[in-house]
Amino acid sequence: MFNRNAKVAVIGAGAVGGVVAAFLAKSGWDVEVAAKHQDLVDRAAGPGFHVFGHKGEHQVRLAAVINIKDLTGPKDIVFLATKAPDAAAAAREAAGLLSDSGAIVSLQNGVCETELAEVLGESRVIGGVVAWGATRHGPGELEVTSPGEFVIGNLSGPLDERLQLVQEMLFAVQPTRITENIWGELYAKLIVNSCINSLGVIVGLPLGGLLAMRRVRTIFLALMREMMAVAQAAGITVEPGGGGKLDYYRFLDGHGGLSTFRRHLVIRLIGAKYRRIKSSSLQSLERGRPTEIDFLNGYVSRIGRQLGVPTPLNDLVVRLVKEIEAGRRRPDRQNLKDEELTRLLRAGA
Length: 349
Description:
By secondary structure, the protein is α/β, with parallel strands linked by helices. The chain has 2 domains: 7-180, Rossmann fold (3-Layer(aba) Sandwich), CATH 3.40.50; 185-346, N-(1-d-carboxylethyl)-l-norvaline Dehydrogenase, domain 2 (Orthogonal Bundle). The chain has 14 helices and 10 strands. It has helices at residues 15-26, 38-45, 87-94, 113-120, 161-170, 182-203, 207-211, 214-234, 248-252, 257-273, 280-286, 297-307, 312-325, 339-346, and strands spanning 7-11, 30-34, 49-53, 58-60, 63-65, 75-80, 98-106, 125-138, 141-154, 176-178. Strands 1, 2, 3, 4, 5, 6, 7, 8, 9 and 10 form a 10-stranded mixed sheet that branches. Strand 6 (75-80), helix 3 (87-94) and strand 7 form a beta-alpha-beta unit. The longest helix has 22 residues, at 182-203.
């Protein structure tokens, strides 16, 4: 039976992982952090992590180690807050730490749950959606940039007491909702993330400048249509995104000038509201790290191929981002003039 004595670990002390760890510790949970770098471990044990922004200002000291293998087991709940490309390897390392009824909660951008389930089994993985924003300004300097919620759920099977425990924990950070349709929630976030992150890398602009361009909004909508076609073929009922405010089915319904104008207006308003936000993939690229494209548009492309659903625009976006990662292109609005991109848009991709 789980209770307040549950043993907890957070793997990854970046923006989301660091904020989660800090507020869990501040609320009295027995939490340990695998931080990967010595400067983070020193910061955690010394002055503590400095969290500021939308949730006020906090200085929280934490128990931290560099390597996952140095965490003390067994752990009842492990929050996995690594970058998506590192998630499966981290899960393999953490598997031996779990208690008999323990589980890993995925807090990545993109959809990592499929890979995690292959490593651990579905019953050991709790899917998670992080619908709020945070930025890392330096080791242990963490800004909560926007409010929001967590959504959690089992990948299969009924709701259980583990979800209630995780909900209680995460309430220390942000409001947390339990769902019976975690795949629909994950896919809802995947759609927005895939559009904003990939286009942010391709063009190299924050959201305000990015979504002010009509061509970008047109690509945004075309990507969204491909993703919804894949979801339909996969039998996924996509939940409303944007904190329940954007019903994708209604948003994409309708033809003609008025419907098109409405969709462009909504996207432009999103850009205006979050105009200063730079996509996490673009931030990764600027730090010399790979993006999470394989778990965003790349995920859609893989599922599309498996189900026989064409995803030419998502395929192209993956290729363009990979070329930027490899240094064969640079983030620039000139990429919007790519010949294949122009052809696909004209063909109504």
